[in-house]
Amino acid sequence: MSKTINSIAVIGGGSWATAIVKILCNNSDKVNWWVRNSETAEYIKKYKHNPNYLSSVEFEASKIFVSTDLKEIISKSDLIVLAVPSAFLKEALKEIKAEDLKNKIVFSAIKGIVPENNLIVAEFLNQIYKVPLENIGVITGPCHAEEVAMEKLSYLTIASQNTENATLLASKLNCRYIKTTVSDDIYGTEYSSVLKNVFAIASGICHGLGYGDNFQAVLISNAIQEIKKFVDKVHPIERDIKSSAYLGDLMVTAYSQFSRNRTFGNMIGKGYSVKTAQMEMNMIAEGYYGVKCIYEINKKYNVETPITDAVYRILYEKMSPAIEMRLLTDKLS
Amino acid sequence: MSKTINSIAVIGGGSWATAIVKILCNNSDKVNWWVRNSETAEYIKKYKHNPNYLSSVEFEASKIFVSTDLKEIISKSDLIVLAVPSAFLKEALKEIKAEDLKNKIVFSAIKGIVPENNLIVAEFLNQIYKVPLENIGVITGPCHAEEVAMEKLSYLTIASQNTENATLLASKLNCRYIKTTVSDDIYGTEYSSVLKNVFAIASGICHGLGYGDNFQAVLISNAIQEIKKFVDKVHPIERDIKSSAYLGDLMVTAYSQFSRNRTFGNMIGKGYSVKTAQMEMNMIAEGYYGVKCIYEINKKYNVETPITDAVYRILYEKMSPAIEMRLLTDKLS
Fold it and tell me: CA B197, CA B289: separation in Å to the nearest integer?
C-alpha cells in the first residue's frame, strides 16, 4: 500500500531532535514536536527556540506544534521520528500502546539499544509495539546536531526495508544543507551507530592514557573491521561498510573533540572512576549503555570483538584502563 | 636465495628518515645514514642529533655512521631504506648506477611517485635501476615521525612480494613503541599513500572553505572508496582496504592538524594562490606532485576519481576551490 506523509512528528527535546525539527521545517508546513517538559514546551512556544539545546536555532511559530501530550502528537502524525536517548525510550513511550502506532511509519533517530530489552530500536518497535518491519526505519549520520544548527552541509542516510518510506522521508529532509542517501539496512546502520559510540569511548580512553594520533588511526581502522564482522554476523546482507552511514559516522564521533562518548572515555583514561566521570559530565554517554548491550548480545553471536570487550571490562568490571589497552594493542594490526 | 641483513642504510635527512634511524638503532649495532648536506652530517656527528628535524632525538654515537657519500653508504649496506621526498629521489640517486644496487634489498619509505617518470618508487627502482621486484619493498604508516620521536606506540606495515625480506626488515623495526605487520602489496600500499596526501589536501581545502566535521567524515569515507577503486584497478589483488596501512594512513593524515598536505589545502581553501601557499609554508606538500601524477596515470586506467579530479583542477587548472568543491558535494554520498 502506497502511503503519503501529510504530517510528521519528532519525539524528543534534545539537540538531535531539535536539529531534525529544524531540517523538517524546510519542506513541511507543520512539524509536530513532543517534548517531555512542560516548561520547555511553553518556552519554545513563547520564544521560538529550545532553551536547552541548539538555542541559536529559531523556529517559525506557524510551522511547529509543540506539546507534552505524546498521544496527541502521535495521533496527529503519519510518520513519527523518535529522537530521545535510548535509555529513556521505554519511559517516554510508557503510555503508548501498540494500537496508537497502528498504521504509523516510525523512524528511529536514536542510534541506540533499549537497555532493558537488549533490542535495537527497530526490533523494539517491532516486537513490543507490533509495528511491522516495513513501517520501521532508521535515520543515521555522520551528523553532529551542532553543525546542522549552523547549516553546515551534512549527509544523512535514511534506511528502511521499505524503500518507498525511506525515499518519502528523504524527500522531506533534503534541503540546501542536507543531502540524503537511501538504504535498506536498518539492522546494520543501527548496530553500527551503537558500536561507534563504544569505539568513541575507546578512543577517548586511549587519548586519556597518552596514546597518540598514530595509534588512534590504527584503533579506528580496527574498529570499522570490528563493526563489519559484527553486523555481517547479526544481519548478513550485502553492505559497503566504507559508506558514510557506517565509516563516516564512526569517524565523526571518534575524531570529534565534542563527542560526549569520547569525552567520557578520556576521563576514564585519565583515571576518573565511571561514577565520577558521569557526574562531572552531567550528560549521558550513550556508549556506556551500548557496550553492555552489545557485550550481552554478542554472547549469542560470538563475534571476535576485542575493542568492545576491553571497553566493557574497563567500564563494568573495573579493570585497569592502562592494562586493558596495553593488552588490546597486541590484538590490533 | 635466503638473505641475511647485516647492515642497513637510511637515505635522507628529513623527519621520517630521522625517525627510521631512531627505530633501527633499537635492534642494530650500526645504522648507515646518508644525508645530503655536509654541515648536517658534521652536526649530527658532533652533537648526536639532527639539527633540522626531530632534534629532540639523541643518537648513540657508536650506533650511527653518518656520511654524505651515497656510494659508500650503499656499498656498506645490505638493505637500503629510501626516505627522501619523491620529487628529490632522482636527483639524490643521480650518481648511483644499477650495478651499485645489485643484490641490495631496497625499501621505499617515501610514499610518493617519481614525478619525471610517473612511476611509484617500486616501479622506478625496478625499471630504471633493474632492482628485481623480489628485492623491493615499501614501509608505510599510519605514522607521524613526530610521534615516533616521542616513542608513542605506532604500527608500521612492511610490504614486499618477497615475504622473507619483509619479515626480516619487520624484525629490525619491531621495538617497544613500534609494531609491524607484513604485507605483499607494494603497489597498493604505495599508491594508497600517495592518494592519501591528495585527500589530505582536499580535506584542507574543504576546511578552509568552511565545511565542517560532518562533511569531512563523508569526504574521507568517499576517499577510501576512491583509493580502493583505484588500486584494485591498477593492481588487482586481494586486499582489505580497511587495514591500517590504507585506511589508517588516510585518517592519520587527513585528520591531522600537523599534516603539511592538509595545511597546504587549508590555505588554498582560504583563497591563497598555489604559489603563495607554497612560499608561506616553505615545505613541500607531497600531494601537490602526487595529484598530478595520479591524474596522468589515471588517463590509462579511467577510474572514476571525483575527489582527485577536483584537487587537480584546483591546483593545476586554477579552477575556483569553492565551485569545484560545491560540484564535488553532488558526487559524494
Answer: 10
Q: What is the ipTM of this complex?
A: 0.96
pLDDT in tens, A1-46: 456 788 999 999 999 999 999 999 999 999 999 999 999 999 999 9
Task: Say whether B155 and A251 touch across the interface (CB within 8 A).
Answer: no
pLDDT per residue as tens digits for the range B258-291 = 789 999 999 999 999 999 999 988 777 899 999 9
Whether B44 and B121 share a structural domain? yes
| Known active-site residue A196 | yes
How is residue B13 annotated by DSSP?
Answer: -
Identify whether residues B192 and B101 lie together within a single domain. no
CATH number of the domain to which A151 belongs = 3.40.50.720
The answer to whether residues B175 and B194 belong to one domain is no
Q: For residue A229, give how far its alpha carbon lies from the nearest alpha carbon of chain B (Å).
A: 12
- Hey, what's the cell of B125? 627502482
Q: Are A6 and A40 in contact (CB under 8 A)?
A: no
Indicate whether A158 and A263 sit together in one domain.
no
Q: What is the pTM of this model?
A: 0.96
Contact A189, A159 (CB under 8 A): yes
**What range defines the domain where residue A99 resides?**
8-184
Q: Residue A189: its chain B contacts at CB < 8 A?
A: none
A147–B213: do the CB atoms touch at under 8 Å? yes
Q: In this structure, is residue A1 part of a structural domain?
A: no
